[in-house]
Amino acid sequence: MTTSALFIVLALLMAGQGFAWVIQPSYDESAVPDDELPGPLVMADGTPVSTTEQWPARRAELVEQFTEQMFGRLELSTPGEAVVSEWLESDGRALDGRATRRQVRVCFTEDPDGPAMELLVYLPNGTDGPVPVFFGMNFDGNHTVHADPAIRITQAWVRNRAEVGAVDHRASEEGRGVMASRWPVEALIARGYGLATAYYGDLDPDFDDGFRNGLHALLDGAGDTQRPGDAGGAIAAWAWGYRLAMDYFESDPAVDAQRVIAIGHSRLGKTALWAGATDERFAMVVSNNSGCGGAALSRRRFGETIYAINTRFPHWFCASFHTYNDNESALPFDQHALLALMAPRPVYIASAADDRWADPRGEYLAGVHASPVYALLGDPGLVGAGDHLPAVGTPLQDGRIGYHVRTGGHDLTRYDWDRYMDFADRHLGGSDE
Ligand code: GCU
């Protein structure tokens, strides 16, 4: 092997381990290519889409393109239609009597003893009827989202993280409530919203195992070394979990299934967008710092690029997406079209000023360029927007695309949640309807 070949092999190996130095991101706005974005309102054959009647066909075309080229297909060989769920517990006196807590086992197939995800649900007490619910997956297990001692500790594989008490890929009591700053349950309950969450590793452990474990183990061709280019990756599996949660909400009379909001942070922000795009039962979608592969425009090549994400996380997207490494202009879409797939439902994009890796301006501009689809369907998208990023801490919430950039770094904070509740109050009628 020549020295340069050896170097490339080493670099790739290290990239696989997440060594960021191999990837040199650009944070230079003047270096952003001025590639034209593919119009969300033009059919693949060039026909302009100018009436609401034409939109469903264009929408279907885009969903197919995103499936085939980016997230991949994920169909369970066993139909998951008949959702089997079991309340592991339900307690009407949770959080000092302010909430009802349920923990629910939701099975992936009709087999009640087969693989399942555990849903943790808090619903406000004393309401007149079913309540709107925010649903978002968590990174470290349900027990990390709140100090409530009754929350079950996940038995699933977890990433080793001393901060959350995860050792030997097992979660522990030490992690209880450790991620609570990202999940202000009491604040949500006080404003009439329910909060539901599940551990994303229940669907697919987040490491590259050749698609053998998690949901992939249940699929036709599991473990094949030659997978089709459009076989679904981890994000497709997590998004399937969002849909499974929605199936459960439709069966719970205390939940208003017409007002379920999909939310996700970072890689799970990408997931929430894909779940919302493919499952129109979600009434609203929130992308928190979702960045590359989420709300940020890929063609800008600012911060994380397609090459960077596919190199460090080869299991997130389908194999075909890797053909766009350093080749963004060949993509038949860009991420503004993913946002447009929510239309006319409200969608909220949030950035953080110091989170340059996720390209705040690219996330914002995707909202700007998704807006014509909202306008076509009769509702304004991003209102009050110009070419420039809005000032830090000045949310845009008048239209059905919301946006803010807050101070600080990559995180899901109380400030973000307060804005999401404001936006839901405004566009979904909050808890009063
Ligand atoms: C990495 C990755 C991002 C992702 C983030 C996260 O930074 O490069 O694409 O959003 O992890 O999920 O926290």
Overview of this protein structure:
48% of the residues are buried. The chain has a single domain, classed as Rossmann fold (3-Layer(aba) Sandwich). The chain has 433 residues and is an alpha/beta fold. Helix 5 (234-251) crosses helix 6. 27% of the residues lie in helices and 16% in strands. The chain has a nine-stranded mixed beta sheet with strand order 1-2-3-5-4-6-7-8-9, with helices on both faces.
| Residue runs with pLDDT of under 50 for 5 or more positions | none
What is the assembly state of the chains in this entry? single chain
State mean pLDDT (0 to 100 scale). Answer: 93
Number of helical runs?
A: 10
- What is the strand tally? 9
Major sheet strand order: 1-2-3-5-4-6-7-8-9
CATH class category: Alpha Beta
Task: Provide keyphrases for this structure.
Rossmann fold; nine-stranded mixed beta sheet; 10 helices; 9 strands; 433 residues; alpha/beta
Which helices and strands occur, and which strands form pairs?
Layout (H helix, E strand, L loop, with lengths): L2 H14 L38 H17 L13 E9 H4 L1 E9 L8 E9 L6 E8 L46 H6 L3 E6 L34 H18 L3 E11 L1 H12 L5 E5 L17 H7 L22 H6 L6 E6 L7 H17 L24 E6 L7 H15 L5
Parallel strand pairs: 4-5, 4-6, 6-7, 7-8, 8-9
Antiparallel strand pairs: 1-2, 2-3, 3-5
Helix pairs in contact: 5-6
